[in-house]
Design goal:
single chain, Aminopeptidase, 5 helices
């Protein structure tokens, strides 16, 4: 019997989400620092229906978060105005599957979700030194709209695209 293709589903278990985030974070960080995650924030995002997992049976392959967020002073300064923005956050791919097309599929899924929810633009941020992430986002139509910024010792750039 042929196996079923992986399926995107709305996450319901914050612990599963946290496990995948931590695995991905450690793999991406290499010898560098691993981001600290806030379990309460993860629980809230899962409860709000903002987190999506790509699963193959019992294995979590990738995840993406698409949510509404309060505007920040930094964001308002750099993002182009739009009526109803959505925010893409927490892209994670299982370490065994990094280098595959799963990150691209996650971004494409986020674009579909934002569109279905009536967003007019999808906004995100990434580390300007993460050339692979920047290239991936640009190939999916995202445009950089800020210089390299720093907050809490972390560098990032803001990106957006119309949906």
């Amino acid at each position: 019997m042929p196996s079923q293709p992986p399926v995107w589903q709305q996450a319901s278990d914050p612990d599963r989400v946290t496990r995948l985030l931590e695995l991905s974070d450690r793999a991406v960080a290499g010898d560098g620092p691993v981001p600290r995650r806030n379990p309460a924030s993860t629980s809230r995002l899962v409860r709000d229906g903002s987190v999506f997992l790509l699963t193959d049976g019992d294995t979590d392959l990738a995840m993406i978060t698409v949510c509404e967020a309060e505007p920040t002073e930094e964001g308002e300064r750099y993002y182009p105005p739009t009526e109803r923005p959505a925010y893409m956050r927490r892209l994670a791919v299982h370490p065994d599957r990094q280098g595959s097309l799963l990150a691209m599929q996650a971004v494409q899924h986020a674009i579909r979700i934002a569109r279905q929810r009536g967003a007019t633009a999808l906004r995100c941020e990434t580390n300007p030194d993460n050339e692979a992430a920047l290239r991936l986002l640009q190939l999916q139509g995202f445009r950089t709209c800020s210089p390299s910024l720093e907050a809490d010792g972390t560098r990032h750039v803001l990106l957006w695209r119309a949906v």
